[in-house]
Amino acid sequence: MASKIDLPNKNTGVILEAPRERDWRLGGVTGAENKVIVEDGDWTKYLPAFETQNKHGFDTMGCVSFSLCNVLETYAKATGLGNFNFSDRALACASKTTKQGNSFWSVWMTARKYGLVSEESWPWSTDVDSWEEYYKPIPKEIEDEAIKFADKYNISLEWVNTDTESLDEAIRYSPLWVCNKYHAFTLSKSTSVGYETLDQYPFSDGLGRGFWPKNNKLEAAAVITLTEKTIIPEETSHISLMEDALVFEADGIGRNGLHVKGKIYVDNPDKLLIQWIMRNSNENKFTDGNTVNLTTSDFNSFPHFTLKNERLDN
């Protein structure tokens, strides 16, 4: 078994932020193309080579960027997208990592909107031996390479509850991007007593392989998916509905649904109601929400999905 993680009792680069009310959550209304990839939750044979966030005499405080790259590289290899080695340095710099670190949201949004580049294009070479050199401005040609990646690939994030039951379910969808109060890392395998991990510190085996007991507290966890973008013909209805409206089929069999971005989500009514309340809340309080009665014909004019984003026949 890998060595137990024994992190220093100090911040190594993670800034904690609470999920936003409209953020995607695994099992909720989501636009992520998620599906079970590794049934037993063991991603270890797909892990990339160890890369440290601390060398040449300084710590980059880039654990959030390093760990996201590790998750994406693992996911890409497992799904056959390719054997990527992303530049942790480019992502840490583009997401404006500071000496206090960075947040999951900032790093993920940077990767999603502005893209990633290869380690070869923007490496942490031996001549990059200071904080100032590591975080110097990225050249335009490197930014252009990143944009090409963003144009081709989509990176999705879905938050996951940090209880062990939720983590054990979620790790089948992707390696888990997680953090405690001080540090971000990757859960790569679920076992009966804990999780094998990949980290940016070497630990006793020198390869960053560690172990996180199930009784240890995590502050955040997320499923990350990497997919190629495809152009899908737009499915449009002749009906214009308000966003996040709760809809009811007033005739026919009386189905309930939640309208989000041109789709109607049809699922367990209690779950739909909870999603409707959350999506129409502000500062953790329900403020206002729209409800609409539809005929069966109008209800069927929208594409239908479950809350797991599975397409349904209308």
Structure description:
With 314 residues, this protein is of the alpha+beta class. It has 2 domains: 226 residues, Cysteine proteinases (Cathepsin B, Chain A, Alpha-Beta Complex); 62 residues, no CATH class. Helices cover 24% and strands 22% of the residues. β11 and β12 form a beta hairpin. The termini are far apart.
Low-confidence parts: none
Computed over alpha carbons, the radius of gyration is 21 Å
Tell me the number of strands. 17
The major beta sheet can be summarized as:
7 strands, mixed
* The CATH homology group name of the largest domain: Cysteine proteinases
SSE order, as H and E? EEEHHHHHEHEEEEEEEEHEEEHEE
Q: Which bin fits the share of residues in helices?
A: 10-25%
General form: elongated
Average pLDDT, rounded to a whole number, is: 90
* Separation, N- and C-terminal Cα atoms: 49 Å
CATH fold descriptor of the largest domain: Cathepsin B, Chain A
Strand content: 15-25%
What would CATH call the architecture of the largest domain? Alpha-Beta Complex
The secondary structure category is alpha+beta
The side-by-side strand order for the widest beta sheet comes to 1-8-7-6-5-9-4
Count of helical stretches: 8
- The CATH class assignment of the largest domain is Alpha Beta
The domain count comes to 2
